[in-house]
Amino acid sequence: MTTNFPGKVFIVGAGPGDPELLTLKGKRCIAAAHVIVYDRLVNPALLRHASDEVELIYAGKQAGKPCADQRRIEAILVQHARAGEVVVRLKGGDPFIFGRGGEEAEALRKAGIDYEIVPGVSSAIAVPAYSGIPLTHREYASSVAIVTGHEVDKIKWRELLAAADTIDGAPQSKGDHRSRSRRGLRSR
Q1: What is the rounded average pLDDT of the residues 8-36?
Q2: Looking at residue 65, what is its pLDDT?
Q3: Would you state the pLDDT for residue 167?
Q4: Which CATH number does 8-123 carry?
Q5: Where are the domains of the chain?
C-alpha cells in the first residue's frame, strides 16, 4: 500500500515478551503500519494488532545462526519509507538497549527518512521488577548498570563495580548496604 506523501519509520520496542507490556503507542503504530519488520524476540501475539493488509518481514537474529544482514534490514526500512509507507521496525525489549535501534536510526537519518523512536520495556528492568528486586532503593542502591554479555572483554569491570550499586556484591565495610541491593525485596 503506497500513499502520496512521504513514508515514516517507527522504531518500536515490543517489550520483554509479555504482550501486555507493549506500550499503547507501540500498539497504535503496529495497527497503522503498512509494513512491519520484526525481530526474533518479538512475541507473535503482538502482530495480531496489525491490519490484515500489512506486509510482515522477519528480520530475526540469533548468535551463531544465519540471520538477516543489518545493512539489508536498514535498506528495507529506507525502501519502504521512500515508497510512502508507514513502516514499523518492531524490536524486542527497548530498541536502544542492546538492540540495533541506534544503528537503524542513524541509517534512516542519513537517508533523509522521517522516523520516530517508541521506547519499550526492557527485560533489564522487567525481570528484576517481576522478581521483586528493585534496581534502586533509597536505602541500599542509588545506581544501576546494564552491560552486554557479548563484549565482556571491552567492559571496564573494576570501574563499573566501584560505580554501580546493584552489581557491587562485595560490601566495603560491615555496615555497607550495597550488597543487599542484589538480593532485592520480596512482597509479603
Answers
A1: 97
A2: 75
A3: 53
A4: 3.40.1010.10
A5: 8-123, 134-182
Which residue do the cell numbers 541500599 mark? 140
Q: Give the pairing of strands 35-38 and 86-91.
A: parallel
Q: Which residues, other chains included, contact 30 with Cβ-Cβ below 8 Å and sequence gap of 6+?
A: 12, 36, 46, 47, 49, 50, 88, 90
Q: Cα(150)–Cα(153) distance, rounded to whole angstroms? A: 9
- Can you tell me the mean pLDDT for 70-87? 96
Residue 45 CA to residue 98 CA, distance in Å, equals 22
Sign of the alpha-carbon dihedral angle for 170, 173, 178, 181: positive
Length of the chain as a residue count: 188
In what order do the strands lie in the sheet containing 35-38? 55-58, 35-38, 86-91, 8-13, 114-118
Q: What is the pLDDT of residues 81-96, one digit of tens each?
A: 999 999 999 999 999 9
pLDDT band at 40 (very low <50, low <70, confident <90, very high): very high
Residue 159, phi-psi category: left (phi > 0), alpha (psi -120 to 50), beta (remainder):
alpha
pTM for this one?
Answer: 0.81
Q: How many CB atoms lie within 10 A of CB 1?
A: 13
- Cα–Cα distance, 55 to 49 (Å, whole number): 13
